[in-house]
Design a protein that fits this description.
Structural class: mainly alpha
Shape: globular
Strand content: under 5%
Oligomer: single chain
Number of domains: 1
Largest sheet: 2 strands, antiparallel
């Protein structure tokens, strides 16, 4: 049984949100790359790329995403349209991001290209897997991930995890947060995907924070923990359960943001 800490209140969360949910607090975050792309077909490709590479040291993440976007040029959609699997492997043959190779990235982009050829856009592919009575976006997320990972002989590797294997799919849920929500930070664009069904992007830092707030007692930062935490946030904001995700993650990114400033408690997070 979860016992929520008294500090977990909408008042505290709204105070945190009011301070940090602004674009001036985005850097350093790969989300910042999306702001340069106003056309939806370009933005969703950039969002998929940036979120897939969002692991490891933030400076390295920004460098890797910049490298990919420099190669794709100002119109990623046009770049993919004229690319082949072979040309993608050639273009990114020197690319490395921690465990990801150029072939992994080429497979990811080739998968995105084939989805666009089949459905018209990444957005339309996601909608094809979305059912009205789904409680969360998990079934549609699984459909989307399978479509990307099953379109190339070369594996995407860990860049596209499959939800049915239990992964929290932090980076895919981050991608969805960016594309579905629209506020001062998240640029949105997927207006017909309900924000009420989003799942919290769960990583080690968010898991530690949620353990301290009593939102989960699960020992692993997996999908079950992510769904459990999401249900807690949904009790406060049913229409937007990931509303506080960006502000909460500032507590682990910014040196000037301390949990104790917003969550007064006798114990420690």
């Amino acid at each position: 049984m979860k016992i929520m800490h008294p500090a977990f209140t909408r008042e505290n969360l709204d105070r945190l949100h009011k301070k940090y949910n602004r674009r001036k607090y985005v850097h350093p975050d790969p989300l910042e790359f999306l702001y340069d792309y106003h056309e939806l077909n370009n933005r969703e490709i950039v969002a998929l790329t940036a979120s897939s590479l969002a692991y490891g040291r933030v400076a390295r993440i920004l460098k890797s995403v910049s490298q990919v976007l420099d190669i794709m040029g100002p119109c990623p959609a046009a770049f993919l349209e004229k690319s082949s699997s072979a040309s993608l492997r050639k273009d990114f043959r020197e690319f490395r991001h921690r465990f990801a190779t150029g072939d992994n990235l080429a497979a990811l982009l080739a998968g995105a290209k084939k989805i666009i050829e089949k459905y018209g856009s990444l957005h339309e592919c996601f909608l094809a897997g979305l059912k009205r009575d789904d409680e969360t976006l998990l079934p549609a997320l699984s459909f989307f991930a399978q479509n990307i990972s099953n379109t190339e002989n070369i594996s995407c590797g860990h860049l596209i995890p499959l939800p049915e294997r239990g992964s929290a799919c932090k980076r895919l849920n981050l991608f969805l947060r960016w594309m579905v929500r629209k506020d001062r930070v998240d640029p949105g664009g997927w207006e017909d995907v309900p924000a009420s069904k989003l799942i919290i992007p769960m990583d080690v830092h968010m898991h530690r924070l949620c353990l301290g707030l009593g939102l989960t007692a699960r020992k692993q930062a997996n999908m079950r923990a992510a769904l459990e935490v999401t249900s807690c946030f949904a009790k406060l904001v049913p229409q937007d359960p990931v509303r506080y995700d960006f502000a909460l993650t500032r507590l682990g990114i910014r040196d000037d943001a301390a949990p104790e400033e917003f969550f007064s408690m006798s114990g420690k997070l």
